[in-house]
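Subject: mismatched residue count in predicted assembly?

I count 393 residues in my input, but I want to confirm that the predicted structure covers every chain. Input:
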Amino acid sequence: MILIVDCCSEELSSREFVKPIQAIVKNKENKIVKLSEVTKHIDESEKIILCGTALKDFTYLDADFSWLKDCKKPVLGICAGMQLIAISLGAKLIDNKEIGMTPIITKDNVLGEIKEAYQLHGKSTTLPKGATVLYENSSGIQGFKKDNFFAIQFHPEVRNKQIVERFVNQINL
Amino acid sequence: MKLGVLFSGGKDSTLACSIAMEYHEVKCLISIRSENPESFMFHTPNTHLVEKQAEAMGLPIIVQATKGEKESELEDLKKAIKSAKEKHSIEGVVTGAVESVYQATRIQKICDELSLWCFNPLWQINQVELLHNVVSKGFKAIITGVFAEPFTEDWLGKEINAETIKELQKLQKTHKINPAGEGGEFETTVLNGPIFKKELKVISSKKSYKNYSGVLEVQL
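Triage response: the counts match. Full output below for your records.
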């Protein structure tokens, strides 16, 4: 089962940031849970996807995501999800607002090669120690990988759905 | 949260409005009346009807005229949203954006500049699912503009219903049209639905059509 984690504080935002991810993984058994309820469902999950949220929403940073440190399942973090993974791995958040399509340089194609991506974020992250950069652009790191963690700053559900498909169908640890 | 809905009078913005009402208080509609039929941002046929639609929905509306030139129409949109924030104390904006990153990017930037939430409840939705939602929620939406081959004149005035959705799906296969008109292939006008306090009746209408492009101008 693919555990889809809703990091939105506003339910109206879930339609925008969570439902499109569920639509991409619809051929696999999946379940949407709120960030505060993840721990109850980790054991039954095969992989975990942490979704993004609205530009004005930072409540996910106040949630308890300490479970991430010990999680051994493959985890894909998108936008807010990347930030949670980065913090868990000891990296720092930095102010970096990007809205709209930007060019992207693929440094490692484990999740596929892309040339541009849709951005919607007010913060990004430094690179955790020992992580490999997957994507970058002129403003910094756009994706990294470390052990079972895959983190993407942009929104692959817009114009780059294959990244989510690849994580779900092809990533095996 | 108090919200303003960017409203064109078509199916997407009306459906987005009804979804927003399930979670928050919609305080007003915000509409842009573009003089440019080729506008990059805004749905143009029958925007003269938005005041009557707002009245039927029992909501105040802010209508901002624009010449519809590429960047000045964004300034006009920002002016309208700012006015909604001042008059109705809105804290967020709702749009009916589905696929257009051009529209979504610009509205997100304006909301960010005005320190407002931005909600796009139809974002990335499957277009056939969107059409079924319009019908299952009980909206009466008619096609009031067609702008692509193979739409013939008799499409003007058709209601979005199960039969029309099947026909649009056929055209998706044969002509690669976007079934919900996301590529600008057609536009709709909503006359009734669960968020309307009264149904709007068409008093008269006039078709103008040539070479797969036409408009049904409606008077209510």
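The helical segments of chain B are 11-23, 50-57, 72-88, 101-113, 127-136, 162-175. Marking this ticket as 'not a bug'.
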